[in-house]
């Protein structure tokens, strides 16, 4: 050691931020943990190598490097040992190490290195605090927030970061058989202690050790506990505005406020974990409302480019915009309102509807109510109701005429 | 092949004969074809609830109509009735007693169709097309929930023209599902909200989407005690996320899987990724079916995390699917879903609804 090369002092793995004494060991680690095929366990040499192997041999695509921390899952980066690590990540690593050495120097100045001062306890120097941080985002999903984050830390042999999103990387593509047998068959929490030392197994084990409590949800756990309490207040039938019809005692219910900070948190960060490790698809999406990126080198999204739903796109067509004229009503058939309205030029070419349609983009008339809709009287025959009940009406002419343009389609429509 | 596993022969009159040439790939699975199918793309399918004897299928289409068939045990399908909207019908659902059908349309209204009188009246109004409609039956109230592209979720007592409640959505409603006391709504811009329906509907939690692409379909699943416990969410990027509401170990229990993609070949031909158009859970086995723009359907076991079956490829996308109340019948609709834009739309092409015996193929895989 003690090389003052541009690389770090000690070899470290770009995918998971672990330190190694030797580059050879680092490479062995990478081959075993990051470049190992989850289907046949063949060890490859690089990330792209693994991707190509999976594609050619198993016809599977993988989008992320297994056992990599989020942000470091790029399968297309060719990293071998310490080679290929992007410069900025190198710098970041150097900075982190410097910080760490500063802190450990500070700590050495204390009287007793075993004692933690108040100031230093935050530093938590049992192992690199800084590199842990990128992983800290994942702690909540692994352990309930109530549990101390990285609880395995003191007990764990240094150098095994406890947080590996181990399971998600197996997800990319449900293999037509079963998911790899290694982690799935419910690694019983008991075996964690031994599993930790076995290098071949994914580093999930440490986390479940902590979350041993309550492996099964209790049967009677309500789905929405706060609602359960609120419900007790109103039991009788409820009127049209959800106020009870009976004269129940004065305790009117307030809308139950869900108070599950724990769950909310874990869910939010869970989904962020799942997001990043659930294989960012090869077709990257720009989250702008306007367009998607539908084509990339390895895949093509069979979908129009705009990021609106297929139905919205289709409904913009003039063909689907025609509406019946109805007496006493302003026509409802305006272009879709709101965000879609922006995409539609004001319908220059709709021949059928010129007589009918004063342009009324704001739809002021329909503030969500029906005003004087004739159809509201129960039992009245609404203008578009079908008269003859239960007669196979498909042959009937009467329903057809409103569908002005349709006859050509209708007449083909399968006489049976 | 009858629908219900009895020994009656195939070739009952439920199958339409025209259009079946030898090279035609419109029904590669040789499933039962529903007679007098709609004339434009089918957007939604729904089977009658167990309260009705027999099986009745409702389909809403882009021809503005809603059709009802009786499906007999032999597999024969008998058209029963039809109603019209003034715009394409985007969603349909049944009341719990099987007496009414609710329909939601691009004409910004929703209607209630009383099957015995064959009358339909308007029960809801929005400022934009109504994309989803669901019947909610709670111990102390019943109502219809409509989700619209006007970014609102409205709850309607069918007797009043004013909604009982209006909830704002972050974006346009794209899909929703209800199993009391839970409702899930997925919106544009990957919004995802869970509602609890006890006492009165209220927003329970906004969830950060487990998917990175536009949401397309959602279906709630239940646990062993028959209570809703999570949902499956499908996107346009050939992927489904299984998400539990309160799992013991979220990172482990929630997951996503890829589906409806063309096989990656040895060469560097890009993989085609198709939208997931519908998800439905088998009411008995708890396994799920997905249908996609690629013209295939697949059955999955989410607990064993395995695929049970994938169909052959139909010559059109599969736009909708559903199970009947006891899980014996799986219905899926073959019609164009606009996934390749306007250019690939052929109004002359026939739209089909197929029925398949689902009792055996959706049995869960035995866990190891």
UniProtKB/TrEMBL annotation, chain A:
**Record localization:** Nucleus
Region feature Disordered, mapped onto this chain: 99-161, 199-309, 342-416
Q: Which residues form the C2H2-type domain?
A: 13-34, 37-58
Tell me the GO BP annotations in alphabetical order: attachment of spindle microtubules to kinetochore; mitotic spindle assembly; mitotic spindle assembly checkpoint signaling
State the name under which the record lists this protein: Zinc finger protein 207
Start-end of Basic and acidic residues biased regions: 99-111
Q: What is its main location?
A: nucleus
Arranged from A to Z, the UniProt key words for this protein are: Metal-binding, Nucleus, Zinc, Zinc-finger
Q: Name one GO cellular component term.
A: spindle matrix
The answer to keyword Glycoprotein applying to this record is no
Automatic annotation (TrEMBL), chain B:
Q: Which PANTHER family match?
A: MRNA EXPORT FACTOR AND BUB3 (PTHR10971)
The identity of this protein, by name, is Rae1 protein homolog
The species is Cebus imitator
Positions of the region Disordered? 15-34
- Keyword Methyltransferase recorded: no
Q: Does the keyword Zinc apply?
A: no
Question: Which SUPFAM superfamilies does the annotation name?
Answer: WD40 repeat-like (SSF50978)
As recorded in Swiss-Prot or TrEMBL, the protein's gene is named RAE1
| BP GO terms, sorted | cell division; regulation of mitotic spindle organization
């Amino acid at each position: 050691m003690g090389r003052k090369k541009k690389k770090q002092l000690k070899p470290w793995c770009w995918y998971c931020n672990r330190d190694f004494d030797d580059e050879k060991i680092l490479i062995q680690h990478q081959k075993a943990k990051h470049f190992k095929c989850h289907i046949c366990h063949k060890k490859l040499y690089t990330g792209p190598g693994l991707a190509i192997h999976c594609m050619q041999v198993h016809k599977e695509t993988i989008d992320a490097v297994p056992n990599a921390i989020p942000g470091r899952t790029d399968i297309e980066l060719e990293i071998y040992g310490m080679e290929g690590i992007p410069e900025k990540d190198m710098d970041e690593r150097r900075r982190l190490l410097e910080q760490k050495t500063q802190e450990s120097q500070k700590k050495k100045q204390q009287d007793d290195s075993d004692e933690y001062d108040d100031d230093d306890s935050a530093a938590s120097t049992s192992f690199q605090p800084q590199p842990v941080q990128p992983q800290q985002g994942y702690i909540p999903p692994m352990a309930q927030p109530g549990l101390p984050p990285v609880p395995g830390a003191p007990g764990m042999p240094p150098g095994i970061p406890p947080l590996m999103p181990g399971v998600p990387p197996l997800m990319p593509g449900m293999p037509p058989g079963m998911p790899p047998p290694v982690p799935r068959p419910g690694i019983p929490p008991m075996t964690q202690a031994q599993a930790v030392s076995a290098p071949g197994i994914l580093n999930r084990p440490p986390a479940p050790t902590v979350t041993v409590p309550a492996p099964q949800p209790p049967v009677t756990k309500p789905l929405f506990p706060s609602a359960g309490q609120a419900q007790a207040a109103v039991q009788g039938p409820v009127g049209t505005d959800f106020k009870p019809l009976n004269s129940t005692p004065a305790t009117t219910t307030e809308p139950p406020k869900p108070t599950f900070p724990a769950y909310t948190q874990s869910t939010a960060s869970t989904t962020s974990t799942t997001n990043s490790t659930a294989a960012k698809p090869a077709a990257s999406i720009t989250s702008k409302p306007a367009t998607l990126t539908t084509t990339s080198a390895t895949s093509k999204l069979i979908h129009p480019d705009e990021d609106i739903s297929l139905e919205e796109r289709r409904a913009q067509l003039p063909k689907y915009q025609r509406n019946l004229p109805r007496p006493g009503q302003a026509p409802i058939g305006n272009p879709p309102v709101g965000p879609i309205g922006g995409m539609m030029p004001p319908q220059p070419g709709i021949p059928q509807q010129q007589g009918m349609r004063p342009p009324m983009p704001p739809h002021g008339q329909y503030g969500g109510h029906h005003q004087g809709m004739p159809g509201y009287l129960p039992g009245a025959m609404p203008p578009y109701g079908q008269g003859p009940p239960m007669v196979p009406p498909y042959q009937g002419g009467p329903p057809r005429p409103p569908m002005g343009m349709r006859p050509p389609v209708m007449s083909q429509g399968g006489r049976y | 092949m009858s629908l219900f596993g009895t020994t009656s022969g195939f070739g009952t009159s439920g199958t339409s004969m025209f259009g079946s040439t030898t090279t035609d790939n419109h029904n590669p699975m040789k499933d039962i074809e529903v007679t007098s199918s709609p004339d434009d793309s089918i957007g939604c399918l729904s089977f009658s609830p167990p309260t009705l004897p027999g099986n009745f299928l409702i389909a809403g289409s882009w021809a503005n109509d809603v059709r009802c068939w009786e499906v007999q045990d032999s597999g024969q399908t008998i058209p029963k009735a039809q109603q019209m909207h003034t715009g394409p019908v985007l969603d349909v659902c049944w009341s719990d007693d099987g007496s009414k059908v609710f329909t939601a349309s691009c004409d910004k209204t929703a209607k209630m169709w009383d099957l015995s009188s064959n009358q339909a009246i308007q029960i809801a109004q929005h400022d934009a097309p109504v994309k989803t409609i669901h019947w909610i039956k709670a111990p102390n109230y019943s109502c219809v929930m409509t989700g619209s592209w006007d970014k609102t979720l409205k709850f309607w007592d069918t007797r009043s023209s004013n909604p009982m409640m209006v909830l704002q959505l972050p974006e346009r409603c794209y899909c929703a599902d209800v199993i009391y006391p839970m409702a899930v709504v997925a919106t544009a811009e990957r919004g995802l909200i869970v509602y609890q329906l006890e006492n009165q509907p209220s927003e329970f939690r906004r969830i950060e989407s487990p998917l990175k692409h536009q949401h397309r379909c959602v279906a709630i699943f239940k646990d062993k005690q028959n209570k809703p416990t999570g949902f499956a969410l499908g996107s346009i990027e050939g992927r489904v996320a299984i998400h539990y509401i309160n799992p013991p170990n979220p990172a482990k229990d929630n997951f996503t899987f890829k589906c409806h993609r063309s096989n990656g070949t040895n060469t560097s031909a890009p993989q085609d990724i198709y939208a997931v158009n519908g998800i439905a859970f088998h009411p008995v086995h708890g396994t799920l079916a997905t249908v996609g723009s690629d013209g295939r359907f697949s059955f999955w076991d989410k607990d064993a995390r395995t695929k049970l079956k994938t169909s052959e490829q139909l010559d059109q996308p599969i736009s909708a699917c559903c199970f009947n109340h006891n899980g014996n019948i799986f219905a899926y609709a073959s019609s164009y879903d606009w996934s390749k834009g306007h250019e690939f739309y052929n109004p002359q092409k026939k739209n089909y609804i197929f029925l398949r015996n689902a009792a055996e193929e959706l049995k869960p895989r035995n866990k190891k």
